[in-house]
Amino acid sequence: MMATLFEYCFQSDSYGVHPPRLTPFYVNILIFQTNRSLELYKKTENKIWSIETKLVLKQMGKLAFTMLQRNSKVFFEKDMMECDLDLREVTVFSGLCAELPTASSRGQREFCYVHFTLQEFMAALYVFTMFRSESKNVLDSGSWHTPTVLTSKAQSKSILSLVQSAVELTLSASLGHYDMFLRFLCGLLSPDCHDRLLGGLLFPHDAAKVSGLDEVQQLLVRTIQSAQHNNRTRLENLEECLREMIQVDE
């Protein structure tokens, strides 16, 4: 899988001019694994994702986000049931999760994403999908919902609110377990990811691009400027969040 993705990336003459962004790479992993699952297990070569496929991915993202909130890399069958997920769908068909070889001390079967960064990516994808498809900020305890299409001005304000919530959540986590989550969320704001790569798959081709990114960029710049420079790791992550969102890959 990795070889296929790298081969695809190296087809571009300009690849390597800028440091590669992580988010498009993980988006391509998701696309590759989902299409592979549809071909192998659903016996279809149709690359248009069904409502059922999108729902499974959303619920897997919800599971990942729930585990991230608990700062846990491991989940159980009851966690999948709470997200209305089928065990085989998650651990076999998706290609994103696996069962751990040993059971827990209480004899329960344990599962995890094949890599923790994949869990962080899926959590970010869930938060972004809920915002773009359902107009919900799941990071806000007073989560809002607007059934009608948001105006450009309203969406601009709401995307700023979403990222502000994510930044505050990340900076308040002393363990740093939301750092990559924020980086992926910012990366998904890039039209290259949510429109070019995921358009026609997870989102409709004619869906409007996310607006208000200038305000989000200003927020990240201010956050970087006011960050504690003695915490170099956190500062570098904030800089990478900004790059994930604004870098244009040729």
The termini sit apart by: 23 Å
Q: Tell me the count of domains.
A: 1
The low-pLDDT segments are: 142-153
Task: Please state the structural category.
Answer: mainly alpha
Output the number of helix runs. 11
The best one-word shape is globular
Enumerate the strands of the largest sheet in spatial order, edge to edge or round the barrel: 1-2
N to C succession of SSEs = HHHHHEEHHHHHH
Give the rounded overall mean pLDDT: 86
Give the biggest sheet. 2 strands, antiparallel
Percent of residues in β-strands: under 5%
How many beta-strand segments? 2
Helix content range of the residues, please?
Answer: 55-70%
Q: What is the CA-based Rg, rounded? A: 18 Å
Protein name: Chromosome undetermined SCAF22870, whole genome shotgun sequence
Main location: cytoplasm
GO molecular function, one term: ATP binding
GO cellular component, one term: cytoplasm
Describe this structure in words.
It is built from eleven helices and two strands. With 250 residues, the protein is mainly α. The protein has one domain (18-137, 151-246). The protein has a two-stranded antiparallel sheet. Helix 3 crosses helix 6 (116-134), helix 6 packs across helix 8 (179-188) and helix 10 (213-226) runs antiparallel to helix 11 (232-246). Residues 115-245 form the NACHT LRR and PYD domain.
